[in-house]
Amino acid sequence: MKIKDLPNDSKPRERFLKYGPEALSDAELFAIILRTGNKNENVLEVANKLIAEYGIDKLFDCSVKELRKIKGIGKTKAIELLTIAELAKRYSSFKREIKHISSAKDVFDLYHERLKDEKQENFYVLMLNNKNNIIKEELISKGVLDSAIIHPREVFKPAIKNSSARIILIHNHPSGDPKPSEEDVKVTKQIKEASKFVSIELVDHIIVGREDYYSFKQKFLDF
C-alpha cells in the first residue's frame, strides 16, 4: 500500500504534526527523510529494510555505496542521510563544547563524539593559553600516524602563530582500542623533546578510542 493511501493517523508526516517527533518510530522518522519508496515498496517499507540491514547504531557509519545497496536508496538519498548524521555529530559536539581544559577527560569529552567512528586516524593539535583556555585547534594529518609526517615543525608552527603557551595532542584509533602503538610513543617523545626548544609546553597526548581514552600524562612513565 502506498503512503498516500494510508489513513492520516498512519502517515508519518501527519503523525509528526499531530503528536511530535518523539511519538514516531525510527522507521517513520527515516520515512520522512527519504520521502519516497520504490515501485514495489512504500517509503516505510524501505525505511524498515534500511534499519534491518544496518541498525540505527551502524547506519550512519555506512558509506554512500553501502546505503545504495538498499533498493530505493539512490545517491541523493544516501548523501542526505549522511549529511543529517554529520549535522547531528556537530550539534552534539557543540552542545558539549568546552572552553577550558582541566583534565584529560575534558579533552576526551571534547573529541570523542567527533572521532569515535572515524575510519582513519586524525591527528589534532589543541592550542591553549597559560590558563588552559582553548585558543584554537588544527588538524595536522589524516591517515596512518607516521613520525615522518607528524614532524614537530608541523605541530608547533600553528602553536607559535597563535601565541600558544601549551598544546595537547589528540588522535583517534579506528580500531577502538586507545592503547598506544610504538609509533604513537615515538611521535610523542619526538614532540615532547622539541617542545623544550620552543618553550611551548606539551601538556598531554590523548588517544581517543571507541569508549575510552589513553592519556600519556596519566599512564606513560617517561612523559
Characteristics:
223 residues; alpha+beta; Cytidine Deaminase, domain 2; 5-stranded mixed beta sheet; 10 helices; 45% helix; elongated
Explain this structure.
With 223 residues, the protein is an alpha+beta fold. It folds into two domains: 3-94; 98-219, Cytidine Deaminase, domain 2 (3-Layer(aba) Sandwich), CATH 3.40.140.10. The protein contains ten helices and five strands, in the order αααααααββαβαββα. The protein has helices spanning 12-19, 26-34, 43-54, 56-59, 64-67, 75-95, 104-115, 152-161, 182-198, 216-219, and strands at residues 122-128, 134-142, 166-172, 201-208, 213-215. Strands 2-1-3-4-5 form a five-stranded mixed sheet, sandwiched between helices. Helix 6 runs antiparallel to helix 7 and helix 8 (152-161) crosses helix 9. It is elongated. The mean pLDDT is 90.
The CATH class designation of the largest domain is Alpha Beta
> Kindly state the mean pLDDT as a whole number?
90
- How many helix segments? 10
* Main sheet characteristics: 5 strands, mixed
- The CATH topology of the largest domain comes to Cytidine Deaminase, domain 2
Structural class, from helix and strand content?
Answer: alpha+beta
| Percent in helix | 40-55%
Number of strands: 5
The CATH homologous superfamily of the largest domain is termed Cytidine Deaminase, domain 2
CATH second-level architecture of the largest domain: 3-Layer(aba) Sandwich
Strand order of the largest sheet: 2-1-3-4-5
What number of domains? 2
Instruction: List segments where confidence is low: pLDDT < 50 over at least 5 consecutive residues.
Output: none
Gyration radius from CA atoms, angstroms? 22 Å
How far apart the termini lie comes to: 65 Å
Order of helices and strands: HHHHHHHEEHEHEEH
Global outline: elongated
